[in-house]
Amino acid sequence: MAIPRSAYPAPFNTTRASHIVWTVKDLARSRAYYVDCFGFAVSGEDKSTLYLRGMEEACHHSIVLKQSSDHPACERVGLRVYTEEDLEKAKHVFERAGLPAKWVEVPHQGRTLHVSDAVGTPLEFCATQPVMPRLVVEFKAHHGASPLRLDHFQILTPEVPKACQFYCDLGFRLSEFIAPDGTDDLMFVFLQRKGNPHDIVFANGSGPRLHHAAFSVPDAQHILQACDIASAHGFGETLESGPGRHGPGHAMFTYWRDPDGHRFELFNTHYQMMDIENEPVRWNASQLRRRPWGFPPQRSWYEEASNFSGVKSNDPVQKPNPMSLERFLVEREKA
To answer: N or C: which end of the chain has fewer CB within 10 A?
Structure first.
């Protein structure tokens, strides 16, 4: 297939990945995990909802945790647009594409638009949130990993090419992609609006489901410190993968599963990708076998993800067979 080109100018101005809305079983337990252990700042809370942000974030929240008796799920992923006018334009774009769009009232956000994308991912767009004190130099407030900001989401879908085309039509830029050697059959696509490699990633798998939300930390030492502190808090076993180093992007990372199974990444950020002459970087699938160092993730990293509330998950035509830790150890034993 031809690699999609980004619409320019964009039909409306999406600026960045903004926030994630997760449901959880026990809000107090989630507070102990995200706030006491990992160091997210509390922007507000009531009996059923907890609003969190990173040290670098001035807007009210990048994580919303809602207590629910239902199975834990992701309600929506949030994207920011530049102005209220962009929200109006977004509504028209989605409706013209046959995708229902509606205005909703959401606490601590300005006017908010609820939509789903072409592959069924539930989204909400807003242009404003209340401004909170930025804590990046308020070091007395820093503990745990001192997460700085939300960087991106990764979504599993059996329709990666369709998702890529849809977001490129919205003006997202394809910064990197992974395809089987000798083809342009898209397996992973990394799409961005804010000028670094990605705001939203789509990977081949059963979905749509949320694979993870990723948060940047100041440096590699904070990643290692997070492991030590999580262990001290009794959460050491929630480390699912890493510490390791990505091939694409070359960032150091860890992946964690919170008490409700939601996955998030801590990583030490990545490069800029904003100039008009920057073409998408291609990665052959075979390159993923040759990690800079470290072991591949366990099978759960590839297969498990957070369901979206009320959204049916579909399987891909060809089920992935990636190099998991379990498969790696078996093959090494046979060698």
So the answer is: C
